[in-house]
Amino acid sequence: MPFVDSTRPRLALTVGDPAGIGPEIVRAALDDPRSTADCDLVAIGPASARPDGVPTWDGRDGLQLNTLRGAMWLETPCDDDALEVGKVSATGGAAALAALRAATDRCLAGALDGMVNAPVSKEALHLAGEKVEGQTELLGRWSKAPRMQMLAISGPLRVLLLSRHMPLRDALDLITTERVLEHLSILHDGLCELGFERPHLGLAGLNPHAGENGLLGTEDRDVLVPAAEAARAKGLDVTGPLSPDSIFVRGSKGEFDGILALYHDQAFIPTKLLRPDGGMTVLVGMPFVRVSPAHGTAMDVAGKGIARPDNLIESIVQAAEWASLRRARRMRQRTV
């Protein structure tokens, strides 16, 4: 039987690296009624991580999926005998990749509306043979989404990254007028995906005080100002470049719907300071919803029963809201 639209969004919930805290926070999330209040979940990961009472799904039975209410489990391969909890390994990386691929395939097939990903270890992915920065790059490649970018969210602060995981020197070399303009456009379109009608964007400066008109560096004046002017000429609502030491404070108070940061730590230092135990990342420009908690695998506490699922549950709840928005937009388009 083919997959059909349900009245509620259906989301994949991947376990991530099974050597980290993923299995325990996924189990705790499935046990929390908030997780399935507004969506149905297909948890994806090793059979050994499946909680008692959560039925399995073979990944193909459309009738079973179409009648889903609550949660099911799609089992993916993992060599449990070779896995050591709390240790980075190729085994953990391979298991994380299997779950992520299974989720992606079913989102692209239309069986699921999106996914929420428990954390993976980049080192483990490399040991498993996948030489990528992380889940973000894999999902963009598998989904053939060339304009996909990461948006970090911490309460009212939403920050898009101009570059992600790379040495700072390399990231600085990528700050060009063309790339800044392109990413302002991606940020605008991504916020529209999340329900903003005409988002107000802020552009972070590079140098102290955004260069003080060339006194403290010329990059803001020569590279960023032309990008902001070009974005405004295209109809985008952009303010900046603004001093990096103030724009994120203003963003945290709701002055901007989104901010473009120029490198990884410029984005994540303020977002993690604002909510040390919360926050999430969203991939914009994707054909489906993708949300992940901002924390890592926490190998040092894995298996000790002290990892908290709150951030994962928050990510599920938010993903359900955004998936519902996409569903409503799709239904409106069908009636036009």
From TrEMBL:
InterPro entries: PdxA_fam (IPR005255). It holds the Pfam family PdxA. Its EC number is 1.1.1.262. Keywords: Metal-binding, NAD, Oxidoreductase. GO terms for molecular function: 4-hydroxythreonine-4-phosphate dehydrogenase activity; metal ion binding; NAD binding. The keyword DNA-binding does not apply. This is 4-hydroxythreonine-4-phosphate dehydrogenase. It comes from Rohdeia mirabilis.
